[in-house]
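Fold this sequence, please.
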Amino acid sequence: MFRWWVAWRFLVSEHKNNFLTTFLAIVGMALGVASLVVAMAVVSGYEGTLKKSVIDIFGHLIVVKSGPPIQDFEAFEEKIRDKVPGVQGITPFLYMEAILAHHKKLTGVVVQGVDPSSVGKVLNLHKHLVQGDFQWGVQNGIPVAFVGKGLQKKYQLKLGDVFRVVIPSSDPYNVEKLRPRVQVFRVGGVLNFGRHDFDSRTLVTNLFTVQKMAQMKGRFVGVRIKFEDERIVRKAAFLIEDLLGPSYWTKSWKQVNRNLFEAVKYEKVVIFLVVLIIVIAASFNISNALLVSVLRKYRDIGVLKSFGGSDRFILGIFARQGLLVGGLGAIMGVVLGLLACWGFLWAQQIWPLIPGEVYKIDHISVEIRMLDLSLILGVSLLICFLSVLAPARRGARLLAVEGLRYE
C-alpha cells in the first residue's frame, strides 16, 4: 500500500507542464477504451438482434419431412413430446413461393402458413406486429394475410387493402405449359421482423389458406419447435432425427444463418484488434508522461534510495503511477463508452442509422456484456503496464548520488 500511496503522491504533485501531458494521456486512453466499448457493444447487439430475429420467426428447431407431407399433427406432436425432453411448444407450418401482384408491380414472396392455435407457443409474431391485430380468419370472404414492412412500403398497402398472389403451377397434361392460380388476400396487419430480407419477402397467413393454395388439405411439410432451454437444441435435433427416421431432417436457428453468424464472430475479433490500436497509441502517451515524471523526480528518487529504497521498490512506484494513469483513463473510457451507447440507441429512434439493405437489419439493440468489458479493461491495463516498464526501469536504475548531486 505504501508504494501505491507514493505513486499517487507523485501523480498529484506533477509540475504544471507535465500535468497537461498526463491529462492528455488519460484522455487518449479514455477515448481508446470508449471506442472499444462502443464497438463491442454494437457488434454484440448486432449478433443478438440477428439471433432474436431468427428465433422469433423460425423457432429453435425446424423439422421437415422429405417426400409425402405429414397428415396427423396431434399424433406427430405427441410422439415428439414423449421422447424429447424440454419441448415448450410445437406448431405445424407450410410455405410456398409465389408472386405478389399489386399496382402493376411484381415481387417474389414466401407465403408462410401458420396454425393460429399453436403458433404463439413457438414464434413471437406478436412482438413484431406494428399495425393491425391478429385476426386469422376471413374478412368479407377474403383470407387475411400479414405482410412484411418492406412489402407494405413498396406497395403502399394499408389495413384492409386487397392484393393478389400468383402461384405458378404446371399443367399435369403438359409440363411445359403453366397454369398459374391466383389467391386474393386482405391486409390484416404489418410485421416488422427487423431484417430487410424477411420484411421484403415474407407474407404470413392461416395454415388452412396455404393448404388450400397448395392443394394439400390437412397436410403440412414440417413443424417448428421451441425449447425451454436453447442449449439443448443440438442434442434434441439428434434425438428427433433418430426417432423419426431418415425421411426427416432438422435445422436449428444457428444453421438457418450459419454463414452470417460465423461472419459476425470473425468481424468482432477483427474490430476489437483494429480499435485496440487506439489504446496502444494512447499507451505511448502514458509512457512519455511517465518518462517526463521520472526525469523531474530525480531528487525524490535519490532521497528514497538514500533511505534504503531498492531498485525494485522504485520500479514498483513508477509502474503503479503509470497504472494509475491508465486505470483512470480506462474507467473514464468505460463510462464514456456507456454514454455513447445510450446516445446511439437514442439516435436510432430519430434517424435511420442502419441501412437494412446492407446489414439485413434496420436497427441494433446495443448489448453490453460483462465479459467484453472485463476483456477490454484487462487488455488495456496490460498494455499500460507493458508501456510503463521502460521509463520505470530508468528511474529505478538511477543512483542515489545522481539524484542528490545538485541538492
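The longest strand covers residues 87-102. The longest helix spans residues 16-58.
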